[in-house]
Design goal:
- It is a single chain.
- The protein is an alpha/beta fold and 397 residues long.
- It is built from nine helices and 13 strands.
- Strands 4-3-8-1-2-5 form a six-stranded antiparallel sheet. Strands 11-10-9-12-13 form a five-stranded parallel sheet, sandwiched between helices.
- It binds flavin-adenine dinucleotide (FAD) and adenosine-2'-5'-diphosphate.
- The site of adenosine-2'-5'-diphosphate has 17 residues, from strand 10, helix 6 and helix 8.
Amino acid sequence: MVYSQAKVIAGGLAHIPIVIGIFYFIMTFFNKRAIEYAEANKPKKVEKKVEKPQIKEKTVAPTKVEAKTEVQKPTSDSPEIKTETPKSKEIPNIEKKPMKKHADVPVNIYRPKTPYEGTVLENYSLLKEGAIGRVNHITFDLKDSDPFLNYVEGQSIGIMPAGEDANGKPHKLRLYSIASTRHGDNFNGNTVSLCVRQLQYEKDGETINGVCSTYLCDIKPGDKVKITGPVGKEMLLPDEEDANIVMLATGTGIAPMRAYLRRMFEPTEKEKNNWNFKGKAWLFMGAPKSANLLYEEDLQRYLTDNPENFKYTKAISREQQNTKGGRMYIQDRVLESANELFNMIENEKTHIYLCGLKGMEPGIDEAMTKAAEEKGLNWSELRPQLKKAGRWHVETY
Ligand code: FAD
Ligand code: A2P
């Protein structure tokens, strides 16, 4: 077939829109993909939360609050407590409750550069004759602090000991768990109390005294002490009045537990806080000797007055023996009470608090593993779930 020149030109021109169309289609396709890719890889916006102070049961002045938290680098005597237990081997709804944000809890009202100088009100030994070491209860006056140094149960404060370190620099702060409720030991809402054990150890035949713990055990009423904080949201109590609270403490680890127990059972404190605790509280307490048991008279009074709501189990390491003939530790008591304890843990209203010697953690973990096995549960799966649900609270040092 023979085409004229005009026909060839006309035919060629007729293909132009087709070529443009294909070209347009390709461009559109690649543009769309490019936009999709850019969208998918766009950096996500991070929502910033601003903490605002607002503490319930305010008997204390409001205060300025900053968001960042400083962290220091760091025996069965009462009747069985009955709790309602679900029958299944699964822990029900364990992750149902989201972790509370505790946005209204005060932190870092006072920092190391501008600490509050509190006055010592009292400083007395908590030990009985024949006890080992030195453990004191120390109370500071906070009433002149401005902004007011308020806190809630389960928090800690920092103490900056007087003097300088070996390099001529001021000593760094040490953290101490608060042993009083927010209303203070005198219920006026303007004091804070600590429970401090003097650190003492032998090195090359010499006795070494801990800097801050010795400073604190030696201070006298009227002395001024640099205080920072409060800090910490790990050991806060739940708001629910029908929560169950299991407490595992060694030595001065009793400090936050003392605050919880006062909040639950101390009559004048209860009038102040309006928190009508209706759950079960179970304290496992480890001490070397009976004379080392801390706050014992108060605890016995709470037992007498609240037999249905409080259980107190002691492990007195140097006076009692475990089944293997070794020192009796709280993890041995946990094992003895495995069934009852896990009945409580299976209840989603139960929180567990661990405070005191860091060294007890592996032992507690081992005991919980065995105790869980007896109930057909797996502790290594259960513990992170409890943590995520905000029911497993640990502060060891
Ligand atoms: P330092 O002079 O600082 O000496 C401690 C150092 O001595 C250690 O770092 C280690 O290097 C060395 N040392 C310690 N023991 C030995 C040993 N056996 N052999 C050789 N070297 C050793 N303490 C309480 O008494 N009550 C509380 O309520 C409390 N709550 C705390 C809460 C939190 C959140 C934290 C983190 C700690 C808490 N502590 C509490 C511990 C407290 O902060 C101090 O660490 C403790 O008082 C010792 O401080 P210090 O200045 O006396 O000792
Ligand atoms: P022990 O010192 O007899 O070995 P305190 O702080 O007043 O000394 O009390 C701490 C208590 O904790 C003591 O009874 C101590 O026992 C005990 N304890 C020491 N090490 C552990 C551990 N690894 N697990 C549990 N309890 C411990």
